[in-house]
């Protein structure tokens, strides 16, 4: 592979500029504009406004009809940054706390390298995706005909992974990230004086019972051989010490890999909520939303990724999937491909993803570029 050392310093500057000007999902107008400008400067065919703010760059070489897609997500998080770095966010309450600024820089670097090396025969589609953080930007792009307009034999998504040391690249066949569901349960009664509890159904007491029973769903209703997580993360009810509230809200998340397990957990939540409400003289409503499916890698594509990774870094078969979620799952439902973890941990550790002290490790920019290029050259060689 041609040396890429000359690309790194400008890409670091670009990455830090994006970091300093973060934008939330479907609002990535400045980011998308800068990306489109860079792609046009390389002579690529550029398409904007896909999935609202998404950008696609197309690079063709040779006569082959084969094609590949490479994805980078662009959006930031609604978190207040606490790094105190010179390139820290200039937008209050918005922060690149998941490294999407680094993903953009690596994919642009791959576009630059592939444009000048052209050691492939076919079409490379560079997908810059909006709104990965809980808003389904990948789904929007797919629904707008992403793979009909830009057909791909394979699609790959690369994400930095602070749990792995820098230089390590990991993936696995089958599930690699969990399905993400969220729920809110509302228990409603009449409310009344706390000194006369016999006259008022107690939504607080019912909520306590509901939380206890829900925390037994995984242990007692799901087979020990299955994998699932149910976390209750919110309880809201009451406003003063001497009133039994009329309403209590309980919220949380469920993570699974198997749709049958997902179905069982949702049904159990609804059943338990109805039972607790009946036993306590209350009504219960359950709002259960499945917003991201599990990220399932195609076995052949995962092996292709590991083979490419072995040529540029330390390739590692990931032993277990993660329960965090990723809307790249929607792309994998529409096209065979694989999701890949790029290790970025420094020797001193560093902050995890979605932490206010996190910053992307610029030392792995080169490895990410080389991996993207290796994927293209292996598939379109």
From TrEMBL:
The Mn(2+) ion enhances activity. Mn(2+) binds at residues 98, 100, 133, 159, 354. The keyword Metal-binding applies. Keywords: Hydrolase, Manganese, Metal-binding. Residues 182-274 form the Peptidase M20 dimerisation domain. NCBIfam families: amidohydrolases. Belongs to the peptidase M20 family. This is Catalyzes the cleavage of p-aminobenzoyl-glutamate to p-aminobenzoate and glutamate,subunit A. It comes from Sphingobium indicum BiD32.
């Amino acid at each position: 592979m041609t040396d890429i050392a000359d690309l790194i310093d400008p890409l670091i500057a670009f990455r830090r500029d994006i970091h300093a000007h973060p934008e939330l999902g479907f609002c990535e107008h400045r980011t998308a504009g800068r990306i489109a400008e860079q792609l046009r400067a390389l002579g690529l065919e550029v398409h904007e406004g896909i999935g609202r703010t998404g950008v696609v760059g197309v690079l063709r070489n040779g006569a082959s009809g084969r094609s590949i897609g490479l994805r980078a997500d662009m959006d930031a998080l609604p978190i207040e940054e606490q790094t105190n770095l010179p390139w820290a966010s200039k937008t209050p309450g918005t922060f690149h706390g998941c490294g999407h600024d680094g993903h953009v820089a690596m994919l642009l670097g791959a576009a630059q390298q592939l444009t000048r090396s052209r050691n492939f025969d076919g079409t490379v589609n560079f997908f810059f995706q909006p709104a990965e953080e809980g808003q389904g930007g990948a789904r929007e792009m797919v629904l707008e005909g992403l793979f009909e307009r830009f057909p791909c034999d394979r699609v790959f998504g690369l994400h930095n992974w602070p749990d792995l040391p820098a230089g390590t690249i990991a993936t696995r066949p089958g599930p690699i990230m969990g399905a993400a569901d969220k729920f809110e349960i509302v228990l409603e009664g009449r409310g009344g004086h706390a000194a006369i509890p016999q006259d008022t159904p107690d939504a607080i007491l019912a909520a306590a019972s509901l939380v206890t029973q829900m925390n037994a769903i995984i242990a007692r209703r799901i087979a020990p051989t299955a994998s699932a997580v149910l976390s209750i993360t919110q309880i809201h009810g009451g406003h003063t010490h001497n009133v039994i509230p009329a309403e209590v809200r309980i919220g949380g998340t469920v993570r699974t890999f198997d749709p049958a397990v997902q179905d069982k957990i949702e049904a159990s939540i609804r059943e338990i909520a109805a039972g607790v409400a009946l036993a306590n003289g209350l009504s219960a409503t359950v709002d259960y939303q499945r917003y991201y499916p599990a990220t399932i890698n195609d076995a052949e594509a995962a092996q292709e990724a590991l083979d490419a990774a072995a040529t540029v870094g330390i390739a590692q078969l990931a032993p277990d999937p993660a329960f965090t979620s990723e809307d790249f799952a929607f792309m994998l439902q529409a096209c065979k491909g694989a999701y890949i973890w790029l290790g970025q941990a420094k020797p001193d550790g560093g902050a995890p993803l979605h932490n206010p002290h996190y910053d992307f490790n610029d030392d792995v920019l080169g490895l990410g570029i080389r991996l993207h290029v290796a994927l293209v050259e292996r598939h379109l060689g």
